[in-house]
């Protein structure tokens, strides 16, 4: 609606309101042309909330306007936005008999209007809350058909009471089976089939058809046009410093009310008066909060105000409003469309203000785990959507990697606040979901690898759980395939969003290669914490700390070295698995060869295996021993370590994949 049309409508309303207070003979001019102009403009443009409120007040208040003029106004009450609770309450309060009530003809018109706009009410539950008042109006014959129709629209199971059933039955008999009463009884019977109506329902009952289909279509056109105009007007200023009067699809399509401030103190300022950032800053301390704070969900300016002037009471009011809407949906007083509209607005609010974690986190590990679980499910959902999409959107790579990066920081926080095995498993589950992006034949070409934080990798590498270490290695092994695929793909200059050789800079790949080198140094090469190799990080252990730990280990036992304490034989999480694999080989050898007289005492070293063979024990080389440990881990569903080592060291991969005879020829090469 243009400002000129809104101004013209306001001026005409003022003229009609002034004329309504004077008898026809006392007026200086005929008011009917003015009413006709007002009706025409309302039909063409619709009515803003303030104009609608004024016209409804004019209709329900005793006046000197003739019935034809009042009817013309009532027929053209086209709201451009959702209708407020106050308007509905004012109309319901004007129904029935009384000297101060509008004529029954106007009451019929207002009831028809409520029937036609009940789906665009700002607070749909208001009609249900007035159910008793409306039901008691059934005695008034002139408005009974429309009251029955309105009750039929809002009746829910909770409204069907024995005393109301009896009242309807009695009234129906008194009115010779009024078809509208019978229609309402049929609605009651839908909720309680056991109601016995007998002869009453054999006649044809009212179908409660829409009072005016053409009026409904015109209302829809007006609200859609207003919503489109509002969207265009606010598209470029959603983050500006003016009240967003019709966010997104417009107030006509939204449950959440727009910012409106009333009962303002003399020295206060309303948000509606703010026009720019300077005005906002200068008057911020004097700005009066709007009537309904839930408008913050759809108004960026109010969001800024609550951010700078936080109020526990304000956010509690917002929470109460949302709880009320959801409760109405659960109780059947609001439809599913209302629920989805609310969820849509809340989603937009979260996108604009990014308060999700702030709203959920309460400085406890439990809330952090809840958010982590949410992100895991979100990642799973996004991947499922991409897998079923015909085309991969250009923003998919950026969005997914941003989610993974953010979750990495949350995971580090969790590892500090709640260093438990269950938390480790929850974090690993998230990254295992992320590996689906690499394993998927289609997605791997479009979604790049986002590595976990370095601190997280080394915390898990030195975890006390062999399961955690194995799952970490499995994730890193999967990433290796992704990097290799990207490095082998020629760079494209066609604007494609596919992953290729230019998708990762060399430093990023070297960072990843350093993780592999450190893990190989720990488990396979007995060179833990070494930073002498190309790309190795030394497990990010400060060099002075490594020197002190080396000295400490030697002071405890000169036969030990720090570099070997994290190998397969000595690692705290692998030593039991390692010696058990030797025990299994010994058991098999003893069962087939009675000459085996000695068992290995453990832990296994190259020297101890040589001594074992010469003292009546099994014949086992150092290379064979380590491969058998990796095979044993894989058989126990702990194959991540073997997978990573195989993918990193080509000779080891060939050896483990070879037949026993061919493998024997390769073992010496290790």
Notes on the structure:
It is a single chain. By secondary structure, the protein is mainly alpha-helical. The chain folds into 4 domains: 3-201, no CATH class; 237-260 and 267-353, no CATH class; 359-504, no CATH class; 576-669, no CATH class. The protein contains 31 helices and 2 strands. It has helices spanning 3-20, 32-45, 49-60, 67-75, 85-93, 104-117, 125-129, 131-135, 144-154, 162-174, 179-191, 213-234, 277-283, 300-308, 312-331, 336-353, 356-360, 365-387, 396-417, 421-434, 436-439, 454-461, 466-487, 506-523, 543-556, 575-592, 606-614, 622-635, 640-648, 650-657, 660-666; strands spanning 269-270, 287-288. The model is unreliable at 235-239, 246-253 and 665-670 (pLDDT under 50).
Number of strands: 2
What proportion of the residues form beta strands (DSSP E)?
under 5%
- Uncertain runs: 235-239, 246-253, 665-670
Query: What is the number of helices?
Result: 31
Distance between the termini: 81 Å
Structural class: mainly alpha
Strand order of the largest sheet: 1-2
Helix content: 55-70%
The largest β sheet comes out as:
2 strands, parallel
Topology:
Elements: H1 3-20, H2 32-45, H3 49-60, H4 67-75, H5 85-93, H6 104-117, H7 125-129, H8 131-135, H9 144-154, H10 162-174, H11 179-191, H12 213-234, E1 269-270, H13 277-283, E2 287-288, H14 300-308, H15 312-331, H16 336-353, H17 356-360, H18 365-387, H19 396-417, H20 421-434, H21 436-439, H22 454-461, H23 466-487, H24 506-523, H25 543-556, H26 575-592, H27 606-614, H28 622-635, H29 640-648, H30 650-657, H31 660-666
Parallel strand pairs: 1-2
Helix pairs in contact: 1-2, 1-3, 2-4, 3-5, 4-6, 6-9, 9-11, 10-11, 15-16, 18-19, 18-20, 19-20, 20-23, 23-29, 26-28, 29-30, 30-31
Family: Belongs to the CENP-I/CTF3 family.
Subcellular location: Chromosome, Centromere; Nucleus
GO cellular component, one term: inner kinetochore
């Amino acid at each position: 609606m243009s400002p000129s049309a809104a101004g013209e409508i306001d001026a005409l309303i003022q003229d009609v309101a002034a004329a309504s207070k004077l008898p026809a003979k006392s007026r200086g001019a005929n008011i009917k042309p003015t009413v006709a102009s007002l009706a025409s403009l309302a039909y063409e443009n619709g009515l803003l909330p303030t104009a609608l409120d004024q016209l409804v007040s004019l209709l329900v208040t005793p006046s000197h306007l003739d019935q034809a003029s009042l009817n013309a106004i009532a027929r053209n009450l086209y709201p451009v936005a959702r209708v407020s609770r106050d308007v509905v309450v004012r109309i319901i309060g004007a129904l029935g008999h009384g000297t101060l009530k509008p004529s029954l003809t106007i009451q019929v018109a207002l009831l028809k209007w409520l029937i036609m706009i009940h789906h665009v009410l700002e607070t749909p539950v208001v009609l249900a809350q007035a159910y008793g008042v409306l039901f008691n109006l059934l005695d008034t014959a002139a408005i009974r058909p429309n009251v029955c129709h309105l009750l039929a629209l809002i009746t829910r199971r909770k409204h069907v009471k024995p005393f109301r059933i009896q009242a309807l039955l009695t009234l129906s008999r008194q009115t010779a089976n009024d078809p509208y009463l019978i229609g309402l009884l049929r609605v009651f019977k839908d909720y309680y089939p056991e109601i016995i109506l007998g002869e009453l329902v054999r006649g044809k009952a009212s179908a409660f058809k829409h009072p005016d289909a053409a009026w409904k279509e015109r209302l829809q056109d007006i609200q859609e046009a207003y919503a489109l105009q509002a969207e265009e007007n606010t598209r470029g200023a959603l983050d500006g410093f003016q009240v967003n009067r019709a966010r997104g699809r417009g107030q006509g399509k939204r449950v959440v009310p727009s910012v409106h401030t009333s009962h303002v103190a003399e020295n206060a300022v309303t948000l509606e008066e703010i026009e720019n950032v300077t005005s906002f800053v200068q008057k911020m301390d004097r700005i009066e909060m709007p009537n309904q704070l839930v408008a913050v969900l759809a108004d960026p300016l109010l969001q800024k105000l609550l951010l700078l002037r936080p109020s526990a009471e304000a956010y509690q009011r917002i929470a109460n409003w949302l709880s009320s809407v959801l409760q109405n949906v659960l109780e059947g007083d609001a439809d599913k469309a209302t629920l989805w509209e609310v969820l849509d607005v809340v989603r937009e609010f979260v996108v604009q203000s990014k308060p999700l974690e702030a709203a959920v986190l309460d400085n406890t590990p439990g809330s952090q785990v809840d958010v982590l679980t949410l992100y895991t499910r979100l990642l799973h959902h996004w991947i499922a959507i991409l897998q079923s999409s015909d085309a991969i959107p250009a923003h998919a790579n950026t969005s997914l990697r941003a989610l993974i990066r953010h979750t990495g920081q949350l995971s580090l926080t969790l590892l500090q606040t709640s260093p438990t095995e269950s938390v480790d498993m929850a974090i690993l589950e998230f990254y295992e979901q992320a590996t689906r992006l690499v394993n998927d034949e289609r997605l791997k070409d479009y979604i790049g690898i986002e590595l976990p934080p370095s601190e997280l990798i080394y915390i898990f590498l030195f975890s006390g759980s062999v399961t955690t270490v194995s799952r970490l290695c499995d994730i890193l092994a999967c990433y290796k395939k992704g990097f290799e695929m990207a490095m082998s793909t020629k760079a494209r200059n066609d604007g494609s969003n596919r992953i290729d050789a230019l998708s990762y800079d060399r430093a990023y790949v070297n960072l990843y290669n350093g993780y592999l080198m450190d893990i190989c140094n720990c488990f396979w090469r007995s060179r833990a914490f070494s930073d002498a190799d190309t790309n190795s990080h030394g497990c990010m252990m400060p060099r002075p700390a490594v020197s002190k730990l080396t000295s400490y280990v030697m002071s405890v036992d000169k036969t030990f070295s720090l570099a070997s304490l994290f190998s397969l034989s000595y690692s705290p999480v692998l030593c039991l698995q390692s010696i058990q694999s030797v025990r299994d080989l010994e058991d098999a050898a003893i069962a087939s060869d009675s000459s085996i007289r000695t068992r290995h005492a453990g832990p296994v070293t190259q020297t101890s295996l040589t001594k074992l063979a010469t003292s009546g024990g099994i014949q086992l080389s150092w290379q064979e021993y380590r491969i058998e440990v990796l095979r044993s881990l894989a058989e126990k569903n702990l194959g991540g370590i073997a997978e990573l080592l195989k993918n990193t060291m080509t000779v080891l991969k060939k050896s483990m994949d070879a037949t026993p005879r061919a493998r024997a020829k390769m073992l010496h090469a290790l």
